[in-house]
Amino acid sequence: MTTKSKDPREQLNRIAQLLIDDLLNTPDEDLLQEASTDKSLVQAGINAKKCYQNAIQSVGAKRLQIAKAEMERANNVKTSISNIDAARAHRIITKLSASNEANVTLAARNLKNISDAEAIELINELVELGAISKDDIS
Predict the structure, then answer these.
(1) 97: closest CA among 84, 76, 77, 112?
(2) Which distant-in-sequence residues (6+ apart) come within 8 Å of 42 by Cβ?
């Protein structure tokens, strides 16, 4: 047998719990339909959507700014090898062509008959692409 409390706080708490249970058991469609008729809720939804879109735009702008700074930094790094001689470039190309490294595929090129300038340019391109490091050259 349940005894009903006469304490007004407990009664208020019981009413609040019943209202919460009723709200949680109400179908979403009913809640949305009721909320769409309340102008203050519609305006609150519009404001929330604007805030969300502004936050996304702000984060995107920050990411873009960071990416631009990284690109600028990467573009300012000198990657070419200015002091490599043609004979060394040809030796490196021959070594890379003979190896089966997964990061460099030179087998399809006719590399035996390239000029000295093309050999140096190819080495610079491989360094710039990160396929080989400057340390591998020296």
Answers:
(1) 112
(2) 35, 36
Q: Tell me the per-residue pLDDT of 55-96, one tens digit each, with 9 for 90 and over.
A: 999 999 999 999 999 988 877 766 556 678 888 888 888 887
Instruction: Output the six-digit token pair for 78.
Output: 């000198």
Give the C-alpha separation, 49 to 45, whole Å.
Answer: 6
Write the single-letter amino acid at 68: K
> pTM score, two decimals?
0.40
Residues across the chain? 138
* 9-48 residues labelled b (16+ CB within 10 A) or e (exposed): eeeeeeeeeeeeeeeeeeeeeeeeeeeeeeeeeeeeeeee
Degrees to nearest 5, angle at CA 19 with 18 and 20: 90
- 46, HSE (Cβ side, Cα atoms, 13 Å): 7
